[in-house]
Amino acid sequence: RDRVGPRSGNPTRALFDRLVRMLGLDEVELVISPQVTRTRVIAQDEPWVVVPRALADLPEPAQLASMGRALARVALGVPWIEELPPPHIEALLIAAGRTVVSAYAVDDLDVLSAKLVTQYEPSVAKVLSRKHKRLLEELAPHIAAPQGRPMPIDAFVSALARAELRVAYLLTGDLLATIDEYRGIDPALLRATETPGQAALTAVLEHPYAGDVARWAILPEATALKRRL
Predict the structure, then answer these.
(1) Which residues, including other chains, have CB under 8 Å from residue 19's CB and lie 6 or more apart?
(2) C-beta of residue 94 within 8 angstroms of C-beta of residue 104
(3) What is the pLDDT of residues 13-26, one digit of tens each?
(4) C-beta of residue 99 within 8 angstroms of C-beta of residue 76
(5) Residue-wise DSSP of 86-129
(6) Rounded distance between C-alpha atoms, residue 109 and residue 119, angstroms
(7) Which of 3, 64, 97, 228 has the fewest CB atoms lying closer than 10 Å?
(8) Which residues make beta-bridge pairs with 48?
(9) Are 20 and 28 in contact (CB under 8 A)?
(10) Helix (H) or strand (E) holding 213
(11) Alpha-carbon distance values, 200 to 44, 82, 190 (Å)
């Protein structure tokens, strides 16, 4: 019932459609609901971006940053990244790799991780579409190669978090709105930046994600990408 269609005339939907076009996505639904307190991506047959009803009352840059970070997750192919703890993300990815390379990462896991992968293997094999299976088969030589060993999962998750914020900045062109979006999900950063001043600036620049996007935003590469979008 809370889905907002492209012909609804809803101004938040118009912003959402602009972001979808900029990222070259399709078949992404927008849901505006009082039942959630933060923007989430729900993986249905097509991804749903679910935003709190209060988001529609915020300034346009804040709406763009929140929806843009979620859509970045869709564009990167990891709509579930905030819904699973890191050990489960690792198990999910390894289980997917084992559908085409049966012994993938067998020497890289401790006992607990190995058990978790074993739990995921049947369900992953069952739900993979033909398209996904074909893509994995094309990747099989790379998965089986020595350099295809899984990276530490914390490094993987951190890289995706940095990428999300960089994409949100590109889509909004507003660094403060992008950092403010992350403050909303990081209580420590929120507390450290409640009072404007040198301490708040230091907290942002020393933060692994907020500081990264602040430094990245001033690079020529970021400026070129922003102009293209």
Answers:
(1) 64, 67, 68, 71, 171
(2) yes
(3) 999 999 999 999 98
(4) no
(5) HHHHHHHHHHHHTTTSTTTTTTS--HHHHHHHHHHHHHHHHH--
(6) 14
(7) 228
(8) 29, 42
(9) yes
(10) helix 210-217
(11) 39, 26, 9
For residues 48 and 31, the answer to whether their CB atoms sit within 8 Å is yes
Distance (Å, whole) CA 185 – CA 188:
9
- Between CA 158 and CA 164 the distance in angstroms is 10
| Tokens at 144, concatenated | 């089986």
User: Which tens digit of pLDDT belongs to each residue from 183-218?
Assistant: 999 999 999 999 999 999 999 999 999 999 999 999
Residue 11, both tokens: 């101004």
In whole angstroms, give the CA distance from residue 141 to residue 34: 47
Residue with token string 């190995």: 114
DSSP code string of 3-65: EE-TTS--HHHHHHHHHHHHHT--S-EEEEETT-SS-EEEESSSEEEEEEGGGGGS-HHHHHH
